[in-house]
UniProtKB/TrEMBL annotation:
CDD domains: ACS. Keywords: Acetylation, ATP-binding, Ligase, Magnesium, Metal-binding, Nucleotide-binding. One of its GO terms (biological process) is acetyl-CoA biosynthetic process from acetate. ATP binds at residues 379-381, 403-408, 492, 507, 518. Its cofactor is Mg(2+). PANTHER family: ACETYL-COENZYME A SYNTHETASE, ACETYL-COENZYME A SYNTHETASE 1. The keyword Protease does not apply. Mg(2+) binds at residues 529, 531, 534. It comes from Allosphingosinicella indica. It is an enzyme of class 6 (ligase). Residues 22-77 form the Acetyl-coenzyme A synthetase N-terminal domain. Pfam families: ACAS_N (PF16177), AMP-binding (PF00501), AMP-binding_C (PF13193). This is Acetyl-coenzyme A synthetase. GO terms for molecular function: acetate-CoA ligase activity; AMP binding; ATP binding; metal ion binding.
Length: 640
């Protein structure tokens, strides 16, 4: 039996839901989904409330929720909170430098969003167009997203850590004609040259005609005449009403890595995503009026979309947004900010927890954390040791710790423990959220019952589900619905225990989760082989103390070329250039050859085992074209 920690009094007192409440609501969400989601949809204001609730099929794939409803998510996140919350802080921002703070009230947010929406309109952007956002973690990122939502423009946020090449690919794929960026961003005291990166991306040619540049650092950046506009110099006035949107009208595209090919443009629509983020924010964080909520994710990832912007603001919360990193200027930064801003709910990633845990308890305990009520984790499996440190040292065994499993594709949280309802098991994501029906299947798609391990699928649609891959519906069908007919396949392996708790064991496909960032091995490989000296590359993951998974790259060189330290540096630079620093390999292993079957297929299973230092269970190597290669690979691994 695994250890279960009962929810502490801070979680049960005043909770919106206890264990019986969860059981009843969960059962109803499966027995009467239309009734359940019709009620949950009332968390939002609708121009026309939906008459039809669920209308979906996984075979053939066609997913719709609330399809005849009409609403606007900017209205729901901003306008409808006025005048009641006019003076309440909507976005509480702290810059990279400690104590540099901006407070944007709901009234001010409204003014700023209207102005940004009008600026987009001035540039000729109309409903249905795509606009790419490449911004630092500043309020203008949320403002720009909401401005797009206001006028029915589909935003595509690209993480500021992606390189010009990666940005270019994402602009081209969705055909944006307008980009919103900033003169630069600051992370950990280092300048991120966002505008220069946009210039470099646009040099590669694409249909971008206008760039809006937010003045953030005040540094000089070249401005292209006729194309680039300082946001603060674009004169606009008047009102900009919220565009009434069909529930199934697209809200945003967010690119994410898969096991093959280029990153996919995950498309979310207005009604379903809006209901899912509003509902999960309320229930999962058991959000209570007036609380300060801090999700440390960047808005360039789905966590930032759902739990920095849409979920908190739809609930009228105060969302803390942080430009910097956990270790600048020192490792006390998170806890110092928790104290300064009296944060009630704190939501971060295991990689940050593990890195801070290494620094000992002092940096945490010297700060007053009595405001904290709830601690959340997201992005990768949290190991029990990190979980316990979070629970004991950060939360003083006073704050419930919730792990939350979900994906870019799912729009919001899918598996978690509800703070007031469930006991917590360190290392387990928990129980399914309302409307989520997880299934475990074996490799052949056979349904596995009871306490067991298998591949995690979801049996039925939920409102926050992605609707398609932008511009490639067939890829959507292939990626998620072809492995197991009639089921959504998550790509994750999972164990279900005797209490029906789910334990995510990690990806079972060629996707790596590096510090909570998703990376396709194929993407890193194609960046490596773009180097003129590289013949072939095979990338696998291996266990890494801080990052969870590290990137291990096996590389073969063209005939006659020799490995050197300089070459390894060049290869890392090559990956940074093609994708960004987050994809830089931790280990580069130059080898004379890669293990292949006689038919020429790379045997990744063997490469994975060797990278994991697991030499004892390489399995059958007799089908290898050159079995002796294995010894030299092991030798090479031992030397690293
Ligand atoms: O493998 C799972 C892991 O992250 C993947 C989704 O990555 P992404 O789309 O970038 O979204 C991350 C933020 C929601 C999943 O397929 N993952 C995410 N959360 C957890 C997790 N693995 C274990 N436990 C989690 N809580």
């Amino acid at each position: 039996m695994s250890e279960t920690i009962p929810p502490p009094p801070s979680a049960t007192t005043g909770a919106h839901m206890d264990a019986e409440g969860y059981a009843a609501a969960y059962a109803r969400s499966l027995d009467d989904p239309d009734g359940f989601w019709r009620e949950e949809a009332r968390r939002l204001d609708w121009v026309t409330p939906p008459a039809t609730i669920a209308n979906w099929s996984f075979d053939p794939v066609d997913i719709r929720w609330f399809e005849d409803g009409v609403l606007n998510l900017c209205h729901n996140c901003v306008d409808r909170h006025l005048p009641a919350r006019a003076d309440q802080t909507a976005i509480l921002w702290e810059g990279d430098e400690p104590g540099v703070v901006r407070r944007i009230s709901y009234a001010e947010l409204h003014v700023a969003v209207v102005a940004m929406a009008l600026k987009l309109k001035t540039l000729g952007v109309v409903k249905g167009d795509r606009v790419t956002l490449y911004l630092p973690m500043i309020p203008e990122a949320a403002i720009a997203m909401l401005a797009c939502a206001r006028i029915g423009v589909v935003h595509s946020v690209v993480f500021g850590g992606f390189s010009p090449e990666a940005l270019h690919g994402r602009i081209e794929d969705c055909g944006s004609r307008v980009v919103i960026t900033a003169d630069g961003g600051m992370r950990g005291g280092r300048l991120v040259p966002l505008k220069a990166n946009v210039d470099a991306a646009l040099e590669r040619g694409c249909g971008v005609t206008s760039v809006i540049v937010v003045r953030h650092l005040g540094n000089d950046v070249p401005m292209a005449e006729g194309r680039d506009h300082w946001a603060d110099e674009m004169a606009v006035s008047g009102d900009c009403p919220c565009e009434p949107m069909g529930a199934e009208d697209p809200l945003f595209i967010l690119y994410t890595s898969g096991s093959t090919g280029k990153p996919k443009g995950v498309l979310h629509t207005t009604g379903g995503y809006g209901v899912w983020t509003a509902s999960t924010f309320h229930h999962v964080f058991d959000y209570r009026e007036g609380e300060i909520f801090w999700c440390t994710a960047d808005v360039g990832w789905v966590t930032g979309h759902s739990y920095v912007v849409y979920g908190p603001l739809a609930n009228g919360a105060t969302s803390l947004m942080f430009e910097g990193v956990p270790n600048h200027p020192n490792v006390e930064r998170f806890w110092e900010m928790v104290e300064r801003h009296e944060v009630n709910i704190f939501y971060t990633a295991p990689t940050a927890i593990r890195a801070l845990m290494r620094e000992g308890d002092d940096p945490v305990t010297k700060h007053d954390r009595s405001s904290l009520r709830l601690l959340g984790s997201v992005g990768e499996p949290i190991n029990p040791e990190a979980w316990k440190w979070y629970w004991r040292t950060v939360g003083d065994e006073r704050c419930a710790v919730i792990d939350t499993w979900w994906q870019t594709e799912t729009g919001g949280v899918m598996i978690t423990t509800l703070p007031g309802a469930h006991g917590m098991k360190p290392g387990s994501a928990g129980r399914p959220f309302f409307g989520v029906e997880p299934l475990l299947v074996d490799g052949d798609g056979k349904l596995l019952e009871g306490a067991t391990s298998g591949n995690l699928c979801i049996a039925r649609s939920w409102p926050g589900q992605m609707r398609t891959v932008y511009g490639d519906h067939e890829r959507f069908v292939q990626t998620y619905f072809s492995t197991y007919k009639g089921l959504y396949f998550t790509g994750d392996g999972c164990r279900r225990d005797e209490d029906d708790y789910y334990w995510i064991t990690g990806r079972v496909d060629d996707v790596l989760n590096v510090s909570g960032h998703r990376m396709g091995t194929a993407e890193v490989e194609s960046a490596l082989v773009a180097h003129p000296l590289v013949a072939e590359a095979a990338v696998v993951g291996y266990p890494h103390d801080i990052k969870g998974t590290g990137i291990y790259a096996y590389v073969t060189l063209n005939a006659g070329e020799e490995n050197s330290e300089a070459l390894e540096t060049e290869l890392r630079q090559q990956v940074r250039k093609e994708i960004g620093p987050i994809a830089s390999p931790d280990i580069i292993h130059v080898t004379p050859a890669l293990p292949k079957t006689r038919s020429g297929k790379i045997m990744r299973r063997i490469l994975r085992k060797i990278a994991e230092n697991d030499f004892g269970s390489l399995g059958d190597t007799s089908t290898l074209a050159d079995p002796s290669l294995v010894d030299s690979l092991i030798e090479g691994r031992r030397n690293r």
